[in-house]
Amino acid sequence: MKRKIPIKQLLRWQLAQAEAAAPSAPRARRLLEAARPWWETQPEQFRDLADQLDRVKIAHGDAMAKLKATSAGHPVPVLIIHRSKNVETSARVISLNVRDGTLRLHLRLKTVAFKSSQDFEVTFVNSQLRPLFSAVATPLKNKACFLDVELPEPLASDWEKLNVKDPMPFRLMVRLGKDGD
Fold it and tell me: Per-residue DSSP letters for 49-73?
């Protein structure tokens, strides 16, 4: 004979099982550390990568004149960070829109140094080689990627005025995930 168990009792038992199996909550210090951006937790690595990003060469002179004929804007220096070897390249801004503090950016990379279709992290760096913010980008076809991110307030109002054809006030560091190369 089957005995009926009230649903309330079953749910309490299930909750007790889940609580017993759950790991203990992390300490506040560990949570705060995990929330810090990578350039704060690895400042020496960031400085080295920023120096390498500063050395990325993009087209100038006649080559730049040929490139301006396209509908894309000025090239933006990009450093793709791999575990084994970093790749220096550039990207073109295909579309840029800042509305209500949110940046929607569509880029086309000159070179793609990864095969994965997984999202990756893009760190925006200013001309003084200081980090501005990071965002997750989604790869698209034809070496393109798209990102949608809320901007910090001083940047949001400044970047609302940007046009695709304007020189961009940033450089990019692309950090690939585990499956990125």
Answer: HHHHHHT-----HHHHHHHHTSSS-
Mean pLDDT score, 6-31: 85
Rounded Cα gap, residues 168 and 96, in angstroms: 10
Of 100, 108, 105, the C-alpha closest to 160 is: 100
Reported as a pLDDT band with limits 50, 70 and 90, residue 1 is: low
* Phi, psi angle pair for 15, to nearest 5°: -65, -45
Indicate whether this model's pTM tops 0.85.
no
Contact 78, 91 (CB under 8 A): yes
Q: Is 101 left (phi over 0), alpha (psi -120 to 50) or beta?
A: left
pLDDT for 50-81, tens place per residue? 999 999 987 554 444 444 445 567 899 999 99
* Helices and strands, number each (H, E), in the chain: 6, 7
Euclidean distance between CA atoms 9 and 16, whole angstroms: 11
Cβ 121 vs Cβ 49: under 8 Å = no
Residues 96, 156: contact at Cβ < 8 Å?
no
* Strand ranges for 87-170 from DSSP E: 87-99, 102-109, 120-125, 131-139, 144-150
CA 164 – CA 24 distance, rounded (Å): 49
Please name the amino acid found at residue 27: R
Domains of the chain by residue range: 42-175
